[in-house]
Amino acid sequence: MATPDIGVIGGRPNTGLENSQKLVRAVDPILHFYKFDRHPLASMLLTQGQSLVNRDNKNIPQIVGKALRKKGYSNMKIEWFEDSFYKLEYSPTAAVAANATSITVSSTDDDYFRANDIIMLTNASGQTERLKITSVAANTLNVVNPDGSTRTAGITMTVNDKLYLLENVRQEDSTAPAIRTTKSANMYNYLEIISEPYGLTQVKRATAHYTGDPMMEEKRKAYSRLLERVEAMFLFGTRAIANSGTNPEYHCGGLKYWMEAYTDCVIRDMGGRALTKAENDAFLTAVLRGGSTDKLILCDSRYMNAVNGFGYETVQVNNFQIGEIGMNVKKIFGPMGVVTLAYEPLFDRMAPFRGSAMVIDLNDTEYCYLEGNGVNMDIADEATILADGSLSEQRQFVGAIGIKFNTLQHFGWMKNIGA
Prior knowledge:
By secondary structure, the chain is of the alpha+beta class.
């Protein structure tokens, strides 16, 4: 074969006959890879609820819009205090007869009561009865009728029935009742050091690419990987600290950890049953009746499909301009107000969490990072030191970050929804 191997074209040359190496490729210079629908919670928290707008192959998306809560803390252990309204509802620990003059309650509940408190007894038949407490002993409420007479023909109760603490009544010219108030609880979580490295050799960086600077391409891909890992941490992290190594290793407790640890969080296990509108309405009523009106439901496809068939009045929304980044988001108008739905693909991808819907009160959710003595350890892009003489460049996104839920009384988790 002759060198160079020059051939002959008979007739008018076309793209099929011409040497294809001479043709300029038409390549879109924008690298399309951001998948914000894969990490809706992290996308929202890391941008503080603002819009991630990816334009013109930029380094990272531009951030615009209204901010959510974000705060720097000067310790890897972040602490807060939580209090609550005075308890209203109680259950007897033994059946109450119609002529009973005392009611037994648990040892953790008897401290809530005082002499002259008014209580309302209820039972499964819908009956009610008002009584006055004359004195409180260990686990025991001694009661009389409101007029002071001995109780002889009241309602009956089982341990499954409820009694409610109402007002405290006073006689004319009486002294003030004993003070009963709540004691704040100490809560804490840890910040977690999380990083995502990226880099390449100097030769690769100097080589021309259709998508522009290859280092910027690696940076964008690393940021996308970071968001996926942060999403998993915020959802499934377990609060812990490991001291077995040279330095302590902190683990941030995520949404699942706090929901399971928090007794006031509403958790409904469907046990593989298909979700009905009545069950969904009951769940939403329990979760949405308190807290702020700014609530988000992270849910999988099973929940989204079920809700889609319930006949709620629905609208497609641009929540935090999320429509610009491809999230599947809409609002539903339920029995206790409006709630925003966002598809969480991790619930579909991880078998134990299929059939899940987690309700988050955004007003009680805070993105946290380490900051003190002039040092800010929010997620940032920084250089990594390599060996002397290395012909490579390496950087990393790194930060000491975490999540804080001020209270979970208005959060909820419906799980194990059947297909």
